[in-house]
Design goal:
By secondary structure, this protein is an alpha+beta fold. Helix content is 47%, strand content 11%. It contains 13 helices and ten strands. A five-stranded antiparallel beta sheet has the order 2-1-10-9-8. It binds 6-diazenyl-5-OXO-L-norleucine. Keywords: Acetylation, Hydrolase.
């Protein structure tokens, strides 16, 4: 019988994850499935799935962990990393800032109020649109191909694809994002055409995954850019450090302070009800439950991560 702390945590996880999921699933009734992208409204409102992956690739999963969903804002973490790899820090931070906003994720308030009119950070919509424009490639077709290749590599899953229905649904209804992009263009933040950058942005938001893919991607971040399973560096350490810092301060938008207080782990949410999180140095975590709270974060997902953090004392503070 081993007394390795990892083995003990892992046993407790696999023994209890199912009951914790059942408990947190009750919180799905506190939220509403996103409908401003009409296709997302088709997601079932009563599901919760989680996958936790350790450095050897072992998986603890429970609930609806095979449910498929689109990355939405979680993709912004990885396009940020790719744009840093393509351009370096100085160029990226000439187009986006490093501070939380306290505003909603799709707010345009500060673009006009604060000088210079660059987005406050790369995880709000305005910032992520600016980041999409920095991905290397002669046009959106090339940029999208590079993004897909990079995401497949991080997820170790060559079959990741863009969900065409979600893409079209977002593109047809993205009046707010279009206005953000025009603002950015007018402020001199975008060098390319608005329609082109939005194609890239909607495409990476529409990449379809499941909880295992999320946990696999998170595992690489948890290990500072090295994939511990293939024992291969995929991302320079500094760029993971930047990404994780943003996840901490802005990853749950204007609920990031509350999440840091209750969970204390780097995380990024998406309006599909997904959350990517990690226990640094140890586990990658993927969660999905579509009903969202007012701030755009999964109600049951946040509750479940809070329970796990409490149970295993995972807060970094
Ligand atoms: O641009 C949008 O509104 C969506 N594609 C992504 C927003 C999102 O996921 C915000 N997250 N909670």
């Amino acid at each position: 019988m081993s007394h390795n702390p990892h083995d003990q945590t892992w046993k407790q996880l696999t023994d209890h994850l199912g009951e914790w999921v059942t408990e947190s699933k009750k919180r799905t009734t506190d939220g509403h499935v996103a409908s401003y992208i009409p296709e997302l409204a088709n997601a079932p409102a009563d599901i919760l799935g989680i996958c936790i992956m350790d450095a050897s690739g072992s998986i603890a999963a429970a609930g609806d962990s095979n449910f498929r969903f689109t990355l939405q804002s979680i993709s912004k973490v990885f396009t940020l990393i790719l744009s840093l790899m393509d351009n370096g820090e100085a160029a990226v931070f000439s187009k986006v800032g490093m501070e939380p906003t306290g505003d909603d994720f799709n707010s345009m308030l500060k673009l006009e109020l604060v000088e210079p009119g660059i987005p406050f950070n790369p995880l709000i919509n305005a910032g992520a649109i600016a980041i999409s424009s920095l991905i290397a490639g002669k046009d959106s077709t090339e940029q999208i191909a590079r993004i897909l290749t990079f995401f497949r590599e991080i997820a170790d899953n060559p079959s990741l694809e863009i969900n065409a229905d979600v893409y079209k649904s977002e593109s047809d209804t993205a009046h707010r994002n279009r206005s953000l992009a025009y603002f950015l263009k007018d402020n001199g933040v975008l060098d390319c055409e608005v329609d082109d950058v939005l194609r890239t942005y909607f495409s990476h938001c529409s990449i379809e995954v499941n909880c295992t893919d999320l946990a696999r991607m998170a595992l690489v971040l948890a290990h500072n850019g090295v994939d511990p399973i293939r024992n291969q560096r995929l991302i320079p350490r500094r760029f993971v450090q930047i990404a994780k810092t943003f996840m901490f301060t802005c990853g749950m938008y204007n609920a990031s302070g509350e999440f840091a207080m209750n969970v204390g782990l780097p995380a990024k949410s998406g309006v599909s009800g997904s959350i990517l999180s990690m226990v640094p140095g140890q586990y990658g975590i993927g969660v999905v439950s579509p009903p969202l709270n007012r701030k755009g974060n999964s109600t049951a997902g946040v509750h479940l991560l809070g329970k796990l953090s409490q149970e295993f004392d995972w807060s970094l503070f």
